[in-house]
Amino acid sequence: MKATDILMEEHQLIERLLNALEAAAQKLEQGRATRPELFLEAVDFNLAFTDGCHHRKEEGALFPALVAHGMPERTGPIVALLHEHSQGREYSGLVREAVRRWQAGDDTARTLIVATVYQYVELLRQHIQKENNILFQMATRIIPPEAQDQLVAAFERIEREDIGTGTKPKYRALLETLEREAWT
């Protein structure tokens, strides 16, 4: 399996989260009962899995490999994608803050949650498309096979040493719970 295949598989999990998050925001927008903690759990998934595992592999291994094989570091796709990673973190923080306001009794925060979730979902869907259809295709072309193998090893090390074993199964289980709740 290539490094980009691993990242695309993780994108599938993230897209499932986006679908569940969007469904929960639609429920909230329609005034249907929605547990505030669902949004906090989704933000936690985003910060721990999307940012802590997936983006860590991209930022700590893939992007440096691309630069080492000729991709510009200060212009082009890497800069744009890093900016979008940062935007995603900002949206997560905004959702967390709005949920806390809602939990404290500020019903107007519900509107902010819905709007921010929609912006976040749109950002990440476009981001994933750029990575899957442009960046990962470029990576396959410019990173030689032996360096691809080194990337896979780096990803395994990141999961084992930096994140901890069992990360993906843990977040798959959380994701399934969020999906069930978002669509009921």
- Please report the total strand number as a whole number: 0
At CATH level 3, the topology is: Four Helix Bundle (Hemerythrin (Met), subunit A)
Q: How many domains in all?
A: 1
Principal-axes shape call: elongated
| Poorly predicted spans | none
Structural class: mainly alpha
Distance, first to last CA: 36 Å
Helical fraction equals over 70%
What are the salient characteristics of this protein?
0% strand, 184 residues, 6 helices, mainly alpha, Four Helix Bundle (Hemerythrin (Met), subunit A)
Write structural notes for this entry:
This protein has helices spanning 3-29, 36-68, 77-103, 109-142, 145-163, 167-182. It is elongated and about 55 Å long. Helix 1 (3-29) runs parallel beside helix 6, helix 2 packs antiparallel against helix 3 (77-103) and helix 2 runs antiparallel to helix 5. The chain is 85% helix and 0% strand. It is mainly alpha-helical. The protein has a single domain (3-182), classed as nmb1532 protein domain like (Four Helix Bundle (Hemerythrin (Met), subunit A), Up-down Bundle), CATH 1.20.120. The longest helix has 34 residues, at 109-142. It has 6 helices and no strands.
Could you give a quick summary of the protein structure above?
The protein is an all-alpha fold and 184 residues long.
